[in-house]
Each structure stands twice: as structure tokens, then as C-alpha cells.
Design goal:
With 206 residues, the chain is α+β, with helices and mostly antiparallel strands. It is built from 5 helices and 7 strands. Helix 4 links the parallel strand 4 and strand 5. Bound molecules: acetyl coenzyme *A. The site of acetyl coenzyme *A has 23 residues, from strand 4, helix 4 and helix 5. Pathway: Nucleotide-sugar biosynthesis; UDP-N-acetyl-alpha-D-glucosamine biosynthesis; N-acetyl-alpha-D-glucosamine 1-phosphate from alpha-D-glucosamine 6-phosphate (route I): step 1/2.
Length: 206
């Protein structure tokens, strides 16, 4: 059987210092020690297509009908770029993906050719929510961004999730907390359907 590829070096997750995060964990857990022997936090792997990775993303937004070939091509593009850190939580008892979050590195000329982190596509399987796993996966990629040299990390979220992200250390910056979009859909260019700093509903593409 062909060995699976990881999207990035898994050892990057082992040295993350969870004591640096403002998020409170009770009981204390980390990416290296996630609290249960059957939980594992690791980079996305090629075999995760068959572990329900796309199904879990469909709890976040529309995924569409993505074939294995499409998945592997996108995986290869992300891996070659070195700027995508899709990180997952696995329930090893069932060999199933139960959580995911993505750190994307945005390379800039400003800030002395600095790198900004973008937090994207955070989701925990609905049967596993309320057990600190959302916090665990977000803190993991947030600490990873710092380790990779980002000067800040940003995200877009629905208004109702502001308390969740605040509890992890994210803040709305006065005068600088709006998301604006223009959408390219069905051959037209259109304005965003709602204002404010949120995704309008659960099925809205991000
Ligand atoms: C940048 C983005 O991608 S935004 C998109 C976020 N994803 C989604 O909306 C997809 C659907 N939702 C989910 O997958 C999950 O509800 C998540 C990821 C938001 C949270 O996952 P969970 O595993 O339930 O979160 P977790 O158990 O770690 O909760 C951490 C804290 O946030 C709070 N919290 C969790 N979900 C919510 C919520 N929807 N609204 C408000 N507070 C919340 C919890 O009460 C908890 O508080 P505590 O630390 O004081 O006890």
C-alpha cells in the first residue's frame, strides 16, 4: 500500500507551547497531549479523503461534489506552496476526522516582507462539540502561526462566534473589524449579501 503524504511536517505540532495561549483549558490539553488516547491532532493527509474530511467541512459550508482526483490535486498544490497548514483532529477508534482548521500564510512586502496568518475553515463534528476540541484546533494553528513567524493572525466569523474566538485571545480592533466581499458567481459580479463582520448563514461559502 502506498504511504500517505502529510501536508506539512507533523513534528511542527509537537513543540507548540500551549501555556503561551490566553485560552483556558480545563482540563489542560494540547496538540501533543489532547486528553484522550484516541484523539490525535496532525496535519491533513492524502488518505483523509476516505476519513470523512470533506464530510466534516460540509458542516461548515457547501463543499460540492469533490472527486478523489480533485482532492489529491488540490492537496499537491497546497503542499508544493508550503503555505497551507490544514490541521485535523482524528478519532483513532473510528479512523475518522472529527475536527479541522486551516492556517494560510499570506506573504507580504509590508512589515519588512512579513507574513500574516489567516485562520480559515474551522469546524468540529457536531457530535463532538462542547468538549474543548474547537478551542484545541484553533489554539493549535494559532500557536503554529506564531512559530512560523507570522506577525498576526486574522479571521472572519459570524457575530455569534465572537465570544468563542475572544475566549481564545482574538479581539475586534476598533475601527478595523469589518469584512467586505465581492462575489464572482454564476457569471456575474455582485456585492456581498449582508454587511458587517460575519458570514451570513451556515451554508454561505466562505
Ligand atoms: C474562521 C472560521 O472558520 S469561522 C467558522 C467556525 N465554524 C463553524 O461555525 C462551524 C460549525 N461550528 C463548529 O464546528 C463548532 O461549534 C465550533 C468549531 C465553532 C466550536 O467547537 P466546539 O468543539 O464546540 O468548541 P469548544 O468546546 O472548544 O468551546 C470553547 C468555548 O467556546 C464556546 N463556544 C463554542 N461554540 C460556540 C458558539 N457557537 N457560540 C458561542 N460560544 C461558543 C464554548 O461554550 C466554550 O466556552 P468555555 O471555554 O467558556 O467553556
Amino acid at each position: 500500500m502506498q504511504e500517505e503524504l502529510s501536508l506539512y511536517d507533523p513534528s511542527l505540532l509537537l513543540g507548540l507551547d500551549f501555556f503561551r495561549s490566553p485560552a483556558g483549558f480545563n482540563p489542560r490539553i494540547s496538540a501533543a497531549v489532547p486528553g484522550e488516547t484516541w484523539l490525535k491532532v496532525r496535519p491533513l493527509q492524502t488518505g483523509d479523503y476516505n476519513r470523512g474530511f470533506l464530510q466534516i467541512l460540509s458542516q461548515l459550508t457547501k463543499v460540492g461534489d469533490v472527486s478523489l482526483t480533485q482532492f489529491l490535486n488540490r492537496f499537491a498544490q497546497m503542499r508544493a506552496s508550503g503555505d497551507y497548514y490544514v490541521t485535523v483532529i482524528v478519532d483513532t477508534r473510528h479512523d475518522k476526522i472529527i475536527g479541522s482548521a486551516t492556517l494560510v500564510l499570506e506573504r507580504k512586502f509590508i512589515h519588512g516582507c512579513g507574513t500574516r496568518g489567516r485562520l480559515e475553515d474551522v469546524v468540529v463534528d457536531d457530535t463532538y462539540r462542547g468538549k474543548q476540541l474547537g478551542k484545541l484546533i484553533v489554539v493549535t494553528v494559532t500557536l503554529l502561526a506564531e512559530q512560523l513567524g507570522c506577525y498576526k493572525m486574522s479571521l472572519d466569523c459570524k457575530d455569534k462566534l465572537i465570544p468563542f474566538y475572544k475566549s481564545i485571545g482574538y479581539a475586534l480592533e476598533p475601527g478595523n473589524a469589518n469584512t467586505m466581499n465581492i462575489r464572482y458567481e454564476n457569471g456575474t459580479i455582485s456585492a456581498n449579501r449582508t454587511g458587517g463582520n460575519c458570514k451570513p448563514d451556515d451554508t454561505e461559502p466562505s
